[in-house]
Design brief:
There is one protein chain. This protein has 21 helices and 53 strands. It is an alpha+beta fold. The protein folds into 4 domains: 128 residues, Carboxypeptidase-like, regulatory domain (Immunoglobulin-like), CATH 2.60.40.1120; 107 residues, Ferric Hydroxamate Uptake Protein, Chain A, domain 1 (Beta Complex), CATH 2.170.130.10; 808 residues, Maltoporin, Chain A, CATH 2.40.170; 134 residues. The strands form 8 sheets. It has a 22-stranded antiparallel barrel. It has a 5-stranded mixed β-sheet with strand order 3-2-5-6-9, with helices on one face. Helix 1 crosses helix 19 and helix 16 crosses helix 18. The longest helix has 31 residues. It is elongated. The N terminus and C terminus are likely disordered.
């Protein structure tokens, strides 16, 4: 029966790697029972299990009940088993992970004599599709390196990999935040990234160190926690019994990057050299292994600043060359040179990372894994924006690393997995210039008769200097037991982590001057000066713990459940001291940080329905519901520790009008201690130092989400899979904030703006600039913003995804999905962290108001992308050459129009503008500006304005155009010159749509493949009329401009070159060659075909052979029809078998495993289709009574029997000639 074992191994290898590596956990549990011919248990039987991926062998002896349990950390899901016992015939098995299981059941019935052919039990999964899930009810996508290394994507960027899962929304990086992603409409900071089962603080690892990555968008496993969105679960490669590794080099060069304006520094052309490598193997075979990987990269970009911008780029930024030239000249007059010899002309970014792993089998029952990781980066010319000059930035450095221990143990069927990880990170940025930040509002006439308004920046970036350190300790332990027969796996686990951070910097540490025009800047008359003052580092610490109890229940082969409870708690030490003044005025205590304990239930199921003639299911229905608890952002507690209202706490200086201290740039340059720490004059109305306070409400808790999903998938035509997944997420206890020191009594209303309330009296507004003093809206004048952080906000997201994937003509595999999303959430005017010194404030993305910022407003979420489509294609054109592609199309992101300035007097720049109708505006300048804007604005911006004329703009009421993207990769694997297909040379065509746009449209670009960064500012505050009590505005006629040729930032069409050389053995190719020839050498096509033919069932000949023994009493006509159909089936099967055996036996050992697998998969499916059609014909020939006598082993030759035996392959003597 070795041919059955061989055929099933080939079938597993034939599956493409994207289908094969849907691994549910890092540890495989092999269980089973060995019995004799009479069904009695066999004690002392020797069970040898060998991983097909790693070639590592584990040995176990059965107990008195004949049962065994073997543990494989990172085993790979496919195993060869050999069972030997004195007095019995040896038996061989192949175990392959089912798509929804974490344990593999291998029951064996041994024969008495060695003359009886060996019994073979195969627990192989049917042809799995990418949408099948490793956990009951869950939705996720597996991304093994074998797939990722062939696609046009950065393999080590975990956040980029997450966007390959349908419905995941990518969140682009900014100059202060890393790239991330959003799942189910949840905030990006509520995701989880794990490496080898524990939290990992970095979004990238050396690409050769990654064994597998899973993007989990829905799960009901109670072992997973600390997130409300999604999870990226990656595992690292460990050493095996095979010496193997790879070296990878990639090149990006400006000469291979093509833009319509080659000299434009904003074209984002760059050069990059990157080297990745990894290698490992056994130190002691089957005992001690090691694997190490590294990554080195250097990237240089053109410095995007006002000095590098040409006139066309400046126009697209909303300004002109004359204004910028005057601005640069004024800087020189103040001695503030825009750049110096020490500031580089290019942005240089060096990155390095390394990972080393050691695996040690202490005994048959214990395996120890030790892992160390390190990463570091150096970036010159950091934090320089296109609207600033080079001296605003600085040089940044970061470093981090950690060490991990994992111990997996097995005590008589009780499995324990202990993990511990300690890590630390540090970041620092040293500024080039230590003077206050400066902002100059400039109105410029643009060549197309529009008036653009922009803010030019100089001095230090307000986020600098920067210095921070963090440390994390995380420990988890899980103990589980698999019931006899494997129906239940009950697990009890716990997790404990502690995070601590120390931040020696804070926003606006050196202050910010704002000028309302170039004339004001030249005269040295600012309209405002703000500064945050603090004498202490921000420190925060959090302790999180969880205990969970769950069960994975395999009710039957078709029905599986997972359910359980998860108890989580958090506490936050390092609360500041007690502030009696805050307590007496607001009734809140500053010396108490909240703690909480919460119990969450979860349950999920998967039901495999229907069956074809071969016995495998046609599809599945899956779903579940449960509650998920995230983690409160640590910066909240760091802010509260600093902004405590005490003498050692943070202070915020706000000066407007006559209270603004005049800048002395020469003195600032010579001594930063001369930078003002107070306002001019004794008046408290237009300037004062006030202490900001951050406190927590009694109901504060970590964010949570109730989530449910229901999915359906069905296979058809043996090679395609269609699925439909619906999900709903209800976010509760979402974090928000209220300013409890804001007097929300309206002092007057802006009649021309729909009665918008203003919380400061008109006397507290500077007429010449429109700047509003903070004092007019304070309940207690000794405090500034008093932010009470609460958990009263909610969100809801509905999402529906339809997917189709499979194998088309010429072995082309594809996957396509369409997702429609509807996401709503609540925000408050202080909902976004940052700015303002006190913690919340600053009116960042998502934080806006039309009146009272303390009132939660429900609206469209920032994370919503109403429509999104994703497609991936892999086409093995010929041996040694394949094409792959990733295409995306998403409807435009939404954005909120804003006003540059404070209108309602709450002290924050978070007000949404009133959409003035040009025909009814009280101000002629506004009417003229709105008319010109409507005449020349992009279509979507115009629609947004017209739809809201005469009202205050709604949150996220505007949208940008749809954003398509297409990346293509060509992989060449030469076999000559002794390369043996170990070398892969790749050409990547990145952002191909831009190249197509240039080719088709020349200078009249449509903006295909370009990022969209709309100008969100509609109105700039220019003054205040105290008589009519209305603000004076200037319309930004560049509002919403961000498409086609009006986009200043151009991402080029790029050709990247990459080469990867495989070292040592290739485990996939080794399995393929073993299936074709084994240790005795490669077989001929005739020999291999003979082995395959004996494993392909012919039901017609089987029924004829069983006629007498079963008493079928076939008549002459039936026998003739069965014989004719049997001959026809044999002839058609011969064609398939000849092709399959010739491909396998005739292909070189250096052949590409992926392409060979694709060819085999197609032929095997054809053979199975023939057998299934034959069964229907056979049933039609027999009478119902005769068909009822035919054994199930003939009716369902590929089905699993209740005892685990494959149909037709039990311990029975085969008919002669079989």
């Amino acid at each position: 029966m070795r041919m059955v074992c061989t055929l099933m191994l080939i079938a597993v290898v034939a599956l493409p790697s994207v289908l094969r590596a849907q691994v549910g956990s890092t540890t495989d549990i092999l269980i089973g029972r060995v019995t004799g011919p009479e069904g009695t248990p066999v004690a002392g039987a020797r069970v040898e299990a060998t991983s097909a991926e790693t070639e590592i062998t584990r040995i176990k002896v059965t107990g008195a009940d004949g049962r065994y349990t073997i543990i494989f950390p990172d085993g790979g899901g496919n195993y060869r088993l050999r069972v030997v016992s004195i007095g019995f015939a040896p038996s061989q098995l192949v175990l392959a992970r089912q798509s929804d299981e974490d344990r593999l059941v291998g029951d064996v019935r041994l024969g008495r004599t060695a003359t009886v052919l060996q019994s073979v039990q195969v627990r192989a999964a049917p042809a799995r599709q990418p949408n099948q899930r490793p956990e009951a009810g869950s939705t996720e996508r597996g991304l093994p390196p074998g797939l990722v290394n062939r696609l046009p994507i950065e393999p080590g960027d975990l956040n980029a990999l997450a966007t390959l899962a349908p419905g995941v929304v990518g969140v682009p990086e900014t100059d202060s935040t890393a790239a991330s992603f959003s799942v189910g409409g949840q905030p990006a900071n509520q995701n989880s990234i794990t490496l080898d089962g524990l939290s990992f603080g970095s979004g990238s690892v050396p690409q050769e160190a990654v064994r597998n990555t899973r993007v989990v968008t829905s799960t009901y496993d109670v072992a997973r926690g600390q997130f409300t969105g999604g999870q990226i679960a990656s595992t690292t490669r460990g050493g095996t019994n095979i010496f193997q590794g790879a070296l990878n080099y990639s090149l990006r060069d400006p000469s291979l990057e093509f833009v319509d304006e080659p000299e434009n520094a904003f074209s984002q052309k760059f050069s990059q050299n990157q080297i990745n490598g990894g290698f490992g193997g056994p130190i002691v075979k089957n005992k001690l292994f090691t694997f190490g990987a590294f990554s080195l990269s250097r990237r240089t970009d053109a410095l995007q600043s006002l000095l590098a911008a040409d006139p066309l780029a400046l126009q697209r930024l909303g300004t002109n060359g004359d204004s910028v030239a005057r601005f640069i000249a004024l800087l020189g007059g103040y001695g503030l040179q825009p750049t110096t010899a020490s500031i580089p002309d290019e942005k240089l970014n060096d990155n390095a990372s390394a990972l080393v792993r050691i695996d040690y089998s202490l005994a048959d029952n214990h395996t120890l894994m030790l892992r160390g990781d390190w990463r570091g980066s150096v970036q010159d010319a950091s934090r320089i924006s296109p609207f600033s000059v080079p001296h605003s930035g600085g040089n940044a450095k970061s470093a981090g690393g950690g060490g991990m221990l994992t111990l997996t143990s097995n005590w008589s069927g009780v499995i324990n997995e202990l993990r511990a990880y300690v890590s630390g990170d540090s970041r620092s940025t040293d500024p080039y210039l230590l003077v206050p930040s400066g902002r100059v509002v400039v109105a410029s006439d643009l060549p197309d008769d529009r008036l653009g308004v922009s803010t030019l920046q100089f001095g230090i970036n307000s986020a600098l200097p920067q210095e921070s350190r963090s440390r994390r300790i995380e420990i988890s332990d899980e103990i589980s037991r698999v019931s006899n027969g494997g129906a239940h796996r009950i697990k009890l686990g716990g997790l404990l982590n502690e995070e601590s951070s120390e931040n020696g910097s804070f926003s606006n540490a050196l202050g910010t001057y704002t000028f309302n025009s170039l004339a004001d800047f030249e005269a040295g008359i600012p309209i405002s000066y703000t500064r945050t003052l603090s004498s202490r580092d921000r420190q925060a610490r959090s302790n999180n713990a969880a205990i969970y109890l769950g069960d994975s229940w395999r009710r039957s082969q078709r029905l599986q459940f997972t359910y359980g409870l998860r108890l989580e708690g958090s506490r936050y030490p390092n609360a500041p001291g007690y502030n009696p003044l805050v307590d007496s005025v607001f009734g809140r205590r500053t010396d108490r940080f909240p703690s909480e304990l919460h119990l969450s239930p979860r349950a999920g199921f998967t039901w495999n329905y229907g069956s074809n003639a071969g016995g495998s299911s046609r599809g599945s229905i899956r779903g579940g519901f449960g509650e998920f608890r995230g983690r409160a952002p640590s910066q909240l507690f760091a802010s509260a520790a600093d902004a405590n209202g005490l003498a050692n706490g943070q202070e915020h200086l706000v000066c407007v009008g006559a209270a603004v201290p005049l800048p002395d740039w020469d003195a600032f340059l010579n001594d930063s201690r001369t930078i003002p720490v107070s306002c001019n004059g004794p008046s408290q109305q237009f300037g004062a130092r006030r202490r900001n306070v951050t406190i927590f409400s009694d109901d504060f808790s970590a964010p949570r989400a109730w989530r449910g999903s229901l999915g359906f998938n069905r296979r058809f035509a043996e090679r395609y899979n269609v699925s439909l997944d619906a999900s709903y997420a209800r976010g509760v206890s979402q974090t928000g904030a209220r300013d409890i020191n804001l007097d929300t009594t309206s002092r007057f209303s802006l009649i021309d703006e729909g009665g918008r309330p203003v919380y400061s009296p008109a006397s507290a507004i500077v007429p010449s600039s429109g700047a509003v003093s903070l004092s007019g809206s304070r309940i207690e004048q000794r405090f500034g913003v008093v932010s009470e952080i609460n958990s009263g906000l909610t969100s809801s997201t509905r999402q529906l995804t339809a997917s189709l994937n499979g194998i088309a003509v010429r072995s082309m595999s594809f996957g396509a999905s369409y997702t429609v999303m509807h996401s709503r959430d609540e925000v408050q005017g202080l909902s976004t962290f940052g700015g303002g010194g006190g913690g919340f404030g600053g009116g960042g993305s998502g934080a806006s108001t039309a009146g009272n910022p303390n009132v939660a407003e429900r609206g469209r979420s920032d994370q919503e992308r109403r429509h999104s489509m994703l497609a991936t294609v892999t086409w093995p054109v010929k041996p040694g050459f394949e094409l792959t592609a990733i295409g995306r199309v998403a409807s435009g992101a939404f954005f909120t129009p804003i006003v540059a300035g404070d209108i309602n007097g709450d002290g924050l720049r978070n007000d949404r503008p009133f959409m003035f109708d040009p025909d009814g505006s009280p101000d002629a300048a506004i009417a003229a500006g709105m008319s010109r804007l409507l005449a020349g604005a992009p279509g979507r911006a115009r629609e947004c304005i017209l739809r809201q004329l005469g009202t205050i703009a709604s949150r996220n009421s505007c949208t940008v155009p749809w954003s398509p993207s297409l990346d293509i990769r060509a992989n060449f694997r030469p076999s000559g010159f002794g390369l043996d297909r170990r070398l892969t040379v790749s050409l990547l065509a990145l952002n191909s749509l831009t190249g197509i746009d240039q080719l088709l449209h020349g200078d009249d670009l449509r903006g295909w493949g370009q990022p969209v960064f709309p100008d969100r500012t509609l109105l700039y505050v220019r003054g205040f009329d105290p008589v009519s009590r209305r603000f004076l505005y200037q319309v930004n006629e560049n509002f919403g401009a961000a498409s086609g040729s009006r986009n200043a930032f151009r991402v080029p069409f790029q050709i990247a070159v990459q080469a990867r050389f495989t070292l040592g053995s290739d485990p996939v190719r080794q399995q393929l060659n073993a299936g074709a020839g084994g240790a005795a050498g490669r077989q001929t096509a005739v020999e291999f075909r003979a082995r395959l033919a004996r494993a392909v069932p012919n039901p017609f000949t089987q029924i004829l052979e069983l006629n007498d023994s079963l008493g079928l009493a076939l008549d002459t006509a039936q026998k003739a029809r069965l014989q004719a159909h049997g001959d026809t089936l044999k002839a058609r099967a011969d064609i398939v078998l000849d092709s399959l055996s010739a491909n396998l036996a005739g292909s070189p050992r250096s052949g590409d495993p992926a392409q060979a697998g694709a060819r085999m998969r197609t032929r095997i499916q054809e053979a199975r289709s023939l057998a299934q059609a034959a069964l229907k014909d056979a049933e039609s020939i027999l009478t119902p009574a005769q068909w009822a006598k035919v054994p199930q082993s003939v009716k369902q030759p590929f089905a699993q029997r209740p005892d685990g035996q494959e149909g037709g392959r039990q311990n029975r003597r085969r008919p002669p000639g079989a």
